[in-house]
Amino acid sequence: MIKLAVIGYPISHSLSPVIHGAVMEHLNMQYAYETEEIKEEELEEYIAKVKKENIAGFNITMPHKQNIIKFLDSVDEEALLCGSVNTVKNEFGRLCGYSTDGDRIYDVSKE
């Protein structure tokens, strides 16, 4: 079973479990997608949990998109350009940060 999550504070407004859940169900994937309300001072502890429990990855919403970077092992170029991360992938205990916000920012600037 693939373990996934979305983190933020507050988090109850997030539609990520519904959106990602629908995609994974459509693909017949076995998964657990949890909503985790994490305060800023709990980020480091959550990172340890991700590694310990082998959580495959997680999405990040406000206010942690910038704060999470210092806890990651690597951050891709696009996320560095955006100055924020909204997706983290656990690659055998190495946490790698990505941003899927950049393309949308670029698209909006063209409008």
- Show unreliable segments: none
Number of domains: 1
* Main sheet: strand order: 2-1-3-5-6-4
Look at the structure and give the mean pLDDT: 91
CATH class: Alpha Beta
CATH topology: Rossmann fold
In terms of DSSP E residues, the strand content is 25-35%
Multimerization state: single chain
> Please, how many helices?
4
**Helix and strand run:** EHEHEEHEEH
State the CATH architecture: 3-Layer(aba) Sandwich
Major sheet description: 6 strands, mixed
How would you describe the shape? Answer: globular
End-to-end distance, in Å? Answer: 41 Å
Total strands: the figure is 6
The CATH homologous superfamily name equals: Leucine Dehydrogenase, chain A, domain 1
Rg (C-alpha, Å): 14 Å
**Helical content (DSSP H or I, runs of 4+):** 25-40%
Structural class: alpha/beta
Overview of the molecule:
The structure is a single chain. With 111 residues, this protein is of the alpha/beta class. The protein has a single domain, classed as Leucine Dehydrogenase, chain A, domain 1 (Rossmann fold). Helix content is 33%, strand content 27%. It has four helices and six strands, in the order βαβαββαββα. Strands 2-1-3-5-6-4 form a six-stranded mixed beta sheet. Helix 1 links the parallel strand 1 (2-8) and strand 2. The termini are far apart.
